[in-house]
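Human: You know discrete backbone vocabularies at least as well as I do. Show me how you would write down a chain together with its backbone fold. No explanation is needed for now; the record alone will do.

Assistant:
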Amino acid sequence: MAFLRYPVGCYLEVKMNSLRIPYALTQNKNIVNPRMANKDDKFFCPQCDSNVILKSGDIRQPHFAHKKDTECSAESVIHATAKKMIILAWKNSANMIDPRHDPFSPCGVSIFRKCPKCDKGAYGNVLVGDIGDIDNVKDEVGVGNYRVDVGFMSCGIPQYAIEVVHTHKVQSEKWDDFKKWKFPCVEVECQHVIDRWNLSLQDPPSFRRLFLEPIQNNFNNDPILEQRYRYDCKHCNPELFTIL
């Protein structure tokens, strides 16, 4: 038996071919937490899209499970879930998960990084939000001879991307080519995405953005993206510590 963490303080249990799924998809393709799910509704696996059932009780952690043995792995389910969370945050569908959320409050995806000036504080950029030149966010998008996990699109062309990793980090050759092509990309951990999603949902109705901390990024390739919707470092500019 093996255990993989999901979300904060919880665990994903894998035993033989039985898989406990932490989040499922509704018929409208929204992500649902088992604690908020209605047992009479239909739910689907984030990875294989097959039917899953809600299991809850007084002893075990509420979760979803396949109706029969599946070829889905814990890693593939976690990876698919994290990708869909990023996409839904942009599509504003995240507000539909909990009725306490304001359906008219815009969502988005932001990243936080160490300040390059003082190396103490952190500043951030709104990677995806109310940005006019991004009209779609898709998974498994082709960039050159590669595929990226989540691509931010404009008129069908990827403008930048997020790579969501579980156990295998993005290969150095891929990063080298992105640098050569001046294609901005961010690498984040699957579990970090799920943890941040779960923490954000604990503070309704203020869930406006999915805040992510990248493992690595190459934003210096795009000076426009570097400055976009920037959060100032409070250590360097405490008087300007506001969202621009």
